[in-house]
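Bit of a strange request maybe. I'm writing a small parser for structure token strings and I need a real example to test against, not something I typed by hand. Could someone generate the tokens for this chain?
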Amino acid sequence: MDYQASLLYLESLAVFGSQLGLKRIERLTELLGHPENRYATVHVTGTNGKGSTALMTSAILTKAGLKTGLYISPHLLSYTERMRIDGQTIDEESFAAAVTKVRGAVDTMLREGLESPTEFEVLTAAAFVIFAEKKVDYAVIEVGLGGLLDSTNVIVPELSIITNVEMEHADRCGGTLEGIARHKAGIIKEGVPVVTAATGEPLDILRETAEEKSADMFVLGEDFSAKAENFDHFRQVISFSSPLLGVTDERFALRLLGTYQIKNAALAIMAAQILKQTNPSITKEAVAYALSIAEWPGRFERMAIGSQRILVDGAHNPAGMRALRDSLDSYYKEESRVFLLGILKDKEVEQMLHILFRPQDRVVLTRPQSERASDPEAIKAIADTMASEVTTCGSAEEALDRALSLVGEEDILICAGSLYLIGELRRLIKEKNSIASSIPVNFYLSE
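Reply from user aminoacidic:
Good idea to test on real output. This should exercise your parser:
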């Protein structure tokens, strides 16, 4: 199959939806010769921050001279974004070749009378194949959903990272915070160290699982910590400390903004310290350089159209909205805010909006490109009680034009609510910049 044919094949698998369980992926990887066992791995899960943490961890490994794969989801515009090697998105030819190889194994499963793998399972297997064929030293693998029954959980990593545990996907992960925590604890393997920023009851459950598996656990706020030092409009500086490691206030510059990235960076730095035990090339210099250049589209990402300032953020649940609001209050406390939002219907909409909005904020609502999208009019009925002005638009393009009409030089436009939406908005913003060919303007953060 070529790239377009591979996309059509993946689309045909969407009918199977998202089905948790390991039987299909276990047989699929067996038929492929277990490519996931041909390199070392780091496994990352969590309600929020797992993508950024995975990115920073992979960047550190790359800058340490280790050939490193990164598998993430979902993508913003192209499926190839999900699989990267040394920071570079894989090419369409390699993607199509891997999907073609996996399809052969799927056909064998069907002839055996087995259930068809899902789209995500095929993508996961394709990533395993690509990383094996490209002979990576490490692959950093982000969980798709939960952990225990996620298709990525066939790997036995050198290190597990659990960023945090909040209420999300409860319908698929036990219905309660305890159930969600147990699903995320499912990536903990026998004797494999764990790094986490979880707190409260979820942390207790992770500890219990780690003790059962004789896995050392390193906890943010206990074994290591990080705090903000300053920012210079383009980077923020943090200090990292670990009494366990005898480290006090080591300073690192982060290209990634957002107060929540301080915690994510701390997890990546601690992960690097653990992996350093078997990889002495992971030096402080490698860590510092990786963090200073790591970029993550759609995570408190600064964009602009002429002099109009725009922030694009993938916040799509209450914890993400809380992190976004904290960052806005830290960096843009005085600016007037216009929000462009689209939210999926399985989210806690009222709670999310209550966290995010101030009474004076203006809001434009639209529908993300997903069959799970909420009706903007239904969200408007809630938002009308929380913000000063709320309008709805039928398409992302119409919504962006409407939002931009509200944004002056002293305002800031924040696009959030769903990764399905912000991928489309990023494309539209870039197109508008290309058409306008505007002269770049400085994009300063308020003091």
